[in-house]
Amino acid sequence: MLNPADDAFVQKLAEAVPDLWLGAPEPRYLEEPRGRWKGQAGVLAKPATTAQVSALMAFCHAARVGVVPYGGGTGLVGGQVCSDGPAPVLVSLEKMTALRAMDAQSLVIEAGATLQTVQDHAASAGRRFPLTLASQGSAQIGGCLATNAGGVNVLRYGNARALCLGLEVVLADGTIWHGLKRLAKDNTGYDLRDLVIGAEGSLGLITAASLRLYEPPAVEGTAVFAVTSPQAAVELLGLAQARFAGCVSAFELISGWGLGFLRDVGPEVHLPFAQDPDWSVLIDLGLPAGMEAEAAFADLYEAAGDRVTDAVVAQSAAQAAQLWQMRESIPLANRRIGAISSHDIAVPVAAIPDFIAEATALLNAMGDFRLNCFGHVGDGNLHFNVFPAEGRSRSDYDAPPVMEAVHKLVVERFDGSISAEHGIGRLKVGELARTADPAKLAMMQAVKTALDPRGILNPGVILPAPQKP
Amino acid sequence: MLNPADDAFVQKLAEAVPDLWLGAPEPRYLEEPRGRWKGQAGVLAKPATTAQVSALMAFCHAARVGVVPYGGGTGLVGGQVCSDGPAPVLVSLEKMTALRAMDAQSLVIEAGATLQTVQDHAASAGRRFPLTLASQGSAQIGGCLATNAGGVNVLRYGNARALCLGLEVVLADGTIWHGLKRLAKDNTGYDLRDLVIGAEGSLGLITAASLRLYEPPAVEGTAVFAVTSPQAAVELLGLAQARFAGCVSAFELISGWGLGFLRDVGPEVHLPFAQDPDWSVLIDLGLPAGMEAEAAFADLYEAAGDRVTDAVVAQSAAQAAQLWQMRESIPLANRRIGAISSHDIAVPVAAIPDFIAEATALLNAMGDFRLNCFGHVGDGNLHFNVFPAEGRSRSDYDAPPVMEAVHKLVVERFDGSISAEHGIGRLKVGELARTADPAKLAMMQAVKTALDPRGILNPGVILPAPQKP
Prior knowledge:
Among the domains of chain A are: about 100-210, Uridine Diphospho-n-acetylenolpyruvylglucosamine Reductase, domain 3 (2-Layer Sandwich); about 220-415, Alpha-Beta Plaits (2-Layer Sandwich). Chain A is built from 14 helices and 16 strands. By secondary structure, chain A is an alpha+beta fold. In chain A, α8 crosses α10 and α11 packs antiparallel against α12 (about 400-415). The interface between A and B is large, with 97 and 98 residues.
């Protein structure tokens, strides 16, 4: 069992690490975007250096006090808010944003920098850091790595894990692991980098990262294709990959439900088709020099035959941005409607049509819902979100049976994932325990105990918090 | 301390797992390609099913007997041969080669299948499994994953780790982890898959894997460019990425030394230039439909200006194969000459020219050597191999000071890797302990102890074998 970060502890911590910023957290540090939990914290710490993080962790370790890392606060599974148990120390690395190094292939930056800042540094050198999220203005790179963030360019570039070459990490006892290698290949022992990435702050605190940079494609284009069905969308993806292997940067499914939500509750965005298609896909191509995006899309449209009923190819960067604004506004419309249960699921790409059909039938049999299913079809990752029927509110519904039914379908029928990109956080600890392979759970617990024997790192995330002995 | 797999143990094992193939290993199971060590084994086991592997491991765990996995036997760092300590059980999965499933995006196959077999299955479905190694006819996919194999297409597709979606693994105590997911995105807890990949059999025994398949590029081409220097090679790579981002499949540096070795000792291969250039690069492009490879190479040649002095663009698949045969024959020529010390190093790509200059100067100051430096410049991974002067033999030289000097330069001056793609095995355990970050070593030991508390899995690989208590 952990001890609380009470006044006596905070006073001793302030004496032990005299230059460390300590204070009461403003309310925003105790909130999360969907408003499901309210956090608590004994104190907020804002270290300015890795040495301060190390001293802080060593002190918490000795005192058996929990440490909850808070990045940009944009996580959707409650990884950044600790709502019960002994009050932890909340740690924000917002003062640690320095760009430590940059060359044509990589940059090294501190974990508190926002994703947007990382992208801007890359752009200033004529390079691109391709991780792209709607929340990139707030999300910090440390949090993006801790949660192995996904987004719309995973299809081409991989998730946050694939974009990270090395880490600097402060371990539970304050030890600093200096792992900021900038190497594409390094087979010197266990892959600790990928173990810490995606561990949601429960195995170590990422203080800096070296990140891959890419040449922007010579030619880029954006289009939206209206397709006749999810099956047509998957087949269109196959046709695109056959023509443009390695050059399909994004391939996003949008449902007519989602466009209807945008019309109903906003935000106001330009919708490309006069009549909303039941299904459409938003496609980014990044092509070699010598090609033309419009011709490439025309070729794809031709090849698609009757799978496609209409298409709009962006004629300018502004038009492309407009199409992306439509896509990126869907989560906000969802939030305004208010989901009963949101499901960030993955299945094999080829199984997407069956999953949508079966999940829709399942929900229709359970009650009167509206659905919005959209997302990263190229990765097999859909956001299958369930909303109250028109005129009803989510308090009229019982959420857990909805989540359990969808997850059961995902896991048992499709061997899929109940969290493709958002992580487990505190929201899905029970769902993970209920659905995961027992050997996997045992291995995870063994690794957690080995690297954080006192269980002070983000207690209650991924695995249950330590209980009274 | 472990117990030996002696006659009494083998007899009890045969009784406990009655259908398991057990026998004395033929000599080839106790050898490795460079002939540095001779292995030993109490018995060779060839399980036919995952259940047999599980029963075998549980029995060895109970008896504290070491288990050494033997794949295709092509590893270069002694991971497959245990030359001292108590005699282990040698395990070959050569009977486990079944293709369990395949669709357009992935296949699931047992670990004993060769890499060539995996490639052939993919090709039969019009897909490609892009891991490519000179030894792919012998190397097994289980070994490729256990060692996180690299090869010539890492630049475009990543190493073995990036090509694996899921694993089935038998743990030290015989527990089976059923992790054969076929998902591009799955953030349900710690990344155990990447922890087992690259662990060289020391954390679990991979029995099957789900692997990513790719659409072959619509247009492919191969060329060799003679460049004026390593700096010109790195700049040429930048020019290629600016034009063909995502479509440069391979970019291999070849030195005049290597071509000279081929002329001196064979094997006989066609060399593209009448006079061997000091430096050349072999380039594969995989382009979208509508492009022409020859025009793309001509554009690149034009852009390269005086960085390039000559080029040969393959006019047929046969000519492309000829150019690749030259590249793939260099390791055999090296073996015929007989290296004093081979260095599979990585540095940041931009640092390659400085590394080559400084390593060459270092060796020239140490004695009379021949050098052959070649490899995957696009990944920052060079094979910097040191040979005796003409007319002398490697027994005239003291190898360890050469290795230590090169590794010191790599680590201290370039923050590089002493094993970019071959792994640590038993060859580099001491070098890793000497050069790695202490926190990394401690984390690795903690993970090893957590997942294999008795130390029976490939003892002595990566970390030192368990000693007498």
